[in-house]
Amino acid sequence: MEGPSVPSVPRASGAQWKRHIVRQLRQRDRTQKALFMELVPAYNHLLEKAELLAKFSEKLKWESKDVTPTAHQGSWEESSGTVSDQILSPVTLRVKWQEEEKGLQLVCGEMAYQVVEKGAALDTLQSQLEERQGRLGALEACVVQLREARTQQARQLKERLEQNAALREAYEGLRANAVHGEATLRRLQEEARDLLDLLVQRKARAAAERNLCNERRERANQALVSQELKKAAKRTVSISEIPNTLDDGIREETVTLAPAAEPEFPESEACGTWKRPFRSASATSLTLSRCVDVVKGLLDFKKRRGHSVGGAPEPRYQSIPMCVAAQIPTQAQDVLEAHLSEVNAVCFGPNSSLLATGGADRLIHLWNVVGGRLEANQTLEGAGGSITSVDFDPSGAQVLAATYNQAAQLWKVGETQSKETLSGHKDKVTAAKFKLTRHQAVTGSRDRTVKEWDLGRAYCSRTINVLSYCNDVVCGDHIIISGHNDQKIRFWDSRGPHCIQVIPVQGRVTSLSLSHDQMHLLSCSRDNTLKVIDLRVSNIRQVFRADGFKCGSDWTKAVFSPDRSYALVGSSNGALYIWDVDTGKLESSLWGPHCAAVNAVAWCFSGSHVVSVDQGRKVVLWH
């Protein structure tokens, strides 16, 4: 029996599938016929024997009826002697026939039983054959599908390999360009630093030359004035007085001063009562006024020198008071449930006696710090969403808040309603800070942008697109620093369009704090660490960790002390942690009223008080 042949893959023409069906039917016919090849001859042989026996038995029946014992007795006896050896008697034949009939019946029964068994086996084999043929057809169809899929996947693999090769070539080209660009950037940065140093040196030399020139001019002027005074002292001065009219007429008096040989006279001389006061008063007043003019000129020159690179000088706030030595808090002095919901932000005013808190209840409360207590001052209303950040301007006259309604809002201290709304972000605003120049602010948002604002016109003067969420921003003289969700701190020049530096940190950045001298930056991140970055070398100087400290949220705020000696942050367990910036040692951990995660902390500019706010609506004043 031939085995099943592997079907060929069907082609597109219509005759192929017809020939395939014919081949399958022929193969099926051969397979089924092979099962009956042994059974059919045996069955035919049985049928032939049964038919022969039936004919033989029928013939015997007829012969037994026709031949009687009396009629043929004589002839049987006569011929018995001759054919006795050939033909037996009917009785013997009947007995023999019956025996053969019984044997044939037994054989027929066995054959019929075998036929039944073979039929059952045939049915079983037929069902198995049909099942296997069905499985074979399904497998053949599956094979066809798998071959098609394999062909398609091979084609896709070839395309992917070609794409990967093209992308690899493009990547190698981009990497080479990046290496070249980094080398060019480093070279340009070095050239820029060299040019800046050269510019500073030239400006310093120009200032020194200008100062020397001014000093020479001042000395020349003073010498000229002295010569004029000497000449004036040598001349005769006449003073005429016209007194009031009297009843007896007009009296005229003339006083004549004699010339002196020397410009300076002792006070004991008689003429000194007239000449010396005149000389000393004139010379002193003239010299002082001239000196004042010179000093003003030098100050104006220094101002112009300070803004010679950036253009016209920008109006700036007065300097914020500096703290000489901050005091580490030790105990809680006042505890208040200040808001209806969690408190997200806190900030001290520049005078250290005014405090602002903002929460999820869309309110900003102003507090006065009086005698170690917090006294309610004012409530600022009108925010469109939860408050995420609050900030005082350096003059303490305005409050800027970031909200969840995709905007920042500006209040004037003393007015309850919002003065301006800075709208333009497409997602919630997470940070809003004043710049050191007047009428300017910066905001950061979860829409991956940082915006600069002109507060005088409530106008967005610049939009910076970033690749990640912005969680906090701080501002220096000419720099903006932003912390992002992609574990990076980015530096932006407010006078240039591009990012000037990126510092990676471990963990999402939650807050930034810039020291008063703008030389150090404190960052808090979700890896439960605080990092101090030295901006002079753009390097991480200290990393603060502590057992039990855990950053509670993406908006947890950490701050420097006013003198930059300490770093302060609140933990998710309600404790406050204070590190020494210089030594990196954990100075103190404060436990007390907070039963929920601390969201933000603030250290007043005088260095005497600390305020912390938490997710349980509490505001705590520490001393």
Automatic annotation (TrEMBL):
Pfam families: ATG16 (PF08614), WD40 (PF00400)
Chain coiled-coil ranges: 144-205
Main localization, broad class: cytoplasm
Renumbered ranges of WD repeats: 336-377, 380-421, 422-463, 560-589
Record-annotated Autophagy-related protein domain positions: 20-211
Record InterPro entries: ATG16 (IPR045160), Autophagy-rel_prot_16_dom (IPR013923), WD40/YVTN_repeat-like_dom_sf (IPR015943), WD40_PAC1 (IPR020472), WD40_repeat_CS (IPR019775), WD40_repeat_dom_sf (IPR036322), WD40_rpt (IPR001680)
CDD domains for the chain: Atg16_CCD (cd22887), WD40 (cd00200)
UniProt GO cellular component terms: Atg12-Atg5-Atg16 complex; cytosol; nucleoplasm; phagophore assembly site membrane
Swiss-Prot/TrEMBL keywords: Coiled coil, Cytoplasm, Protein transport, Repeat, Transport, WD repeat
Gene3D superfamilies the record matches: YVTN repeat-like/Quinoprotein amine dehydrogenase (2.130.10.10)
Repeat as UniProt keyword: yes
Biological-process GO terms, alphabetical: autophagosome assembly; negative stranded viral RNA replication; protein transport
Cellular localization per UniProt: Cytoplasm, Cytosol
Superkingdom of the organism of origin: Eukaryota
PANTHER family xref list: AUTOPHAGY PROTEIN 16-LIKE, PROTEIN ATG16L2
Family: Belongs to the WD repeat ATG16 family.
Role summary: May play a role in regulating epithelial homeostasis in an ATG16L1-dependent manner.
Name of the molecule in the record: Protein Atg16l2
